[in-house]
Specification:
The structure is a single chain. By secondary structure, the protein is an alpha+beta fold. It has one domain. 38% of the residues lie in helices and 23% in strands. The chain is built from 9 helices and 13 strands. Strands 1, 2, 3, 4, 5, 8, 9, 10, 11, 12 and 13 form an 11-stranded mixed sheet that branches. A two-stranded antiparallel sheet has the order 6-7. Helix 7 runs antiparallel to helix 8. The mean pLDDT is 86.
Length: 352
């Protein structure tokens, strides 16, 4: 069996049964609706932050891993302010400020503050999660937790986790909502100037993320996501890549290094870089490239400590991560592959 076929079989084996999949979909909707209602009860400018949260979820039960059909990493958020984008900050066309004449807690010296936005948003999310510690869906009880992390590209990513805590459940459901909150601008409402428009024909919207550069708290970064142009089959290639990496992380207890949020970040920005060239990537090749990029990030981040893995237990998983990366590359080069060698990598039982 060739490597490409082996990966297809792994994807098939980590798929949900129809009943379990529909259960997860139903519970995702219930949890999102509960968080959305709790957020709207706050009556703040973040009230609608959870409206599209469901698209950012990855859920797992036993060996099965999947996500919503409208899988996404960006969580669009519409600010209740009249803002005018001012481009060419520091002579870089992707950077901008949001000019606003309104008096608002997020506005400093006439511009929206990216730093203030994240401080207040994290406070809002914390308040919601502290008040909504558990949610029950048709007898299934989920315990909620969250954290925020700063990505290397100066973007803040959020993780909300829902763990099923029923004592009698042998294979509890685990849900992770991983996202970067972004401001979304519809092209017909706020068209991009020709001088900064991306060559993405047919784009319906563009977004902005925070970009703390040179201690400037009011600077944002513009992106016209190529993601919006993809067909369902192309999005499935990204979804499956997250599933494969999540399966490896779960099997080898390497969530600290291979957490799904990091995977999604690498996937979305790589698709953005590739543009139409993304179509030329097969599922296995795209998976291997993303996995290799994550490994490279780990090496870059932890290089000063790698020779100390025997002393620092929290770095021990790195040895396994590096070994798996090299082993997968070796498998790719072989034309004949034994599935009983491949399946354990992803935490799956051997074939009979």
């Amino acid at each position: 069996m060739i490597f490409e076929t082996a990966i297809e079989k792994v994807i098939e084996k980590i798929s949900f049964s129809e009943l379990d999949y529909q259960t997860c979909i139903s519970d995702v909707k219930y949890i999102v609706d509960a968080l959305d209602a709790a957020s709207k009860n706050k009556s703040t400018f973040f009230s609608n932050i959870f409206a599209e949260l469901g698209s950012t979820v990855t859920f797992m039960k036993g060996n099965a891993i999947d996500s919503m059909p409208d899988f996404n990493y960006f969580l669009p958020f519409k600010m209740p302010l009249k803002m005018k984008p001012i481009f060419y900050v520091n002579n870089r066309k992707s950077l901008l400020r949001l000019k606003c004449k309104e008096k608002h807690v997020l506005v400093e010296d006439g511009f929206v503050s990216a730093e203030c936005f994240h401080v207040l948003l994290s406070k809002h999310v914390k308040n919601i999660l502290e008040e909504t510690k558990t949610i029950e869906c048709s007898g299934r009880v989920y315990k909620l937790s969250w954290h925020m992390r700063k990505m290397e590209n100066q973007i803040f990513a959020y993780n909300i986790k829902a763990d099923q805590v029923n004592a009698d459940e042998q294979d509890p459901i685990i849900m992770t909502f991983d996202f970067v909150p972004v401001f979304k601008f519809l092209m017909y409402e706020t068209p991009l100037p020709n001088s900064v428009a991306d060559n993405v024909e047919g784009a319906r919207y563009w977004i902005i993320c925070s970009a703390f550069i040179q201690d400037e708290i009011s600077i944002f970064s513009k992106v016209t996501p190529y993601w919006q142009m993809l067909k369902p089959a192309q999005k499935d290639k990204a979804r499956n890549t997250v599933r494969l990496i999540k399966a490896i992380a779960k099997k080898h207890h390497e969530e600290h290094f291979l957490e799904v949020c990091s995977s999604k970040s690498e996937i979305f920005w790589r698709i953005q870089e590739l543009g139409e060239a993304y179509n030329n990537y097969s599922q296995p090749i795209f998976f291997l490239e993303i996995y290799a990029r994550i490994i490279n990030n780990i090496i870059t981040r932890f290089r000063p400590f790698l020779n100390l893995t025997k002393s620092f237990k929290f770095l021990k998983p790195f040895d396994d991560v590096l070994h798996i990366n090299e082993f997968l590359k070796t498998l790719q080069m072989n034309r004949e592959i034994d599935m009983n060698v491949v399946l354990p990598i992803f935490g799956l039982p051997n074939e009979i």
